[in-house]
Amino acid sequence: MRSVQYIPRATEKAYVAQSKNQYIFFVPQTASKQEIAKRIGEEFKVTVIDVRVTTRKGKQTKYSKGKHAYPGITYRRDHKVAYITLKDGDKIPVFEEVKEEVKEDKKVDKKSTKKSDTKEEKVEKKSVKKTTKKAEKESK
Q1: Containing domain of residue 104, as a range?
Q2: What's the Cα-to-Cα distance from 40 to each of 31, 64, 90, 110, 122, rounded to whole Å?
Q3: Which of 9, 68, 79, 96 has the fewest other C-beta atoms within 10 Å?
């Protein structure tokens, strides 16, 4: 086996596909369907039922070697994407961990944005800041 990474896609489309028990991965250009199925099955300890593969062509980009000198067009790298269907009951935990982290972050943000300071405390903080600024100006 090659030591190339199979990178899971973390997109909205990939999360929707999970409900159909499908997972989307970036795979090496040289990988065959059989290699992909074997590698994903071993790595995540799941049973792969189906593998569909597409090659996405790289986008066109412009370049130049200096101002108005030798302008040209090149292409970004092509990507091979594998759509993997698993047996019912099997799941890949990589996607679930990302969802949990996002939910936890949102909960923390909501708690930190609550109004913990009363109006009186805010007024006190402002007055302390003003007095410290005055003291700094006088010392200079």
Answers
A1: 7-63+70-112
A2: 12, 41, 12, 37, 56
A3: 68
**For residue 82, what is the domain's CATH number?**
3.30.70.330
Distances (CA, A) of 93 to 15, 32, 35, 36, 139: 12, 24, 21, 18, 60
Question: What length does the chain have?
Answer: 140
Number of domains in the chain: 1
Which residue reads 């792969």 in tokens?
48
Q: Tens of pLDDT along the chain (140 residues)? A: 446 788 888 888 888 888 889 999 999 999 999 999 999 999 999 999 999 999 999 999 988 877 777 788 999 999 999 999 999 988 888 666 545 555 555 555 555 554 556 767 777 777 777 777 777 777 76
Note whether residue 90 is domain-resident: yes
- Between CA 134 and CA 38 the distance in angstroms is 71
Q: Is residue 119 part of a domain?
A: no
Domain-located, residue 121: no
pLDDT score at 77? 93
> Is position 45 within any domain?
yes
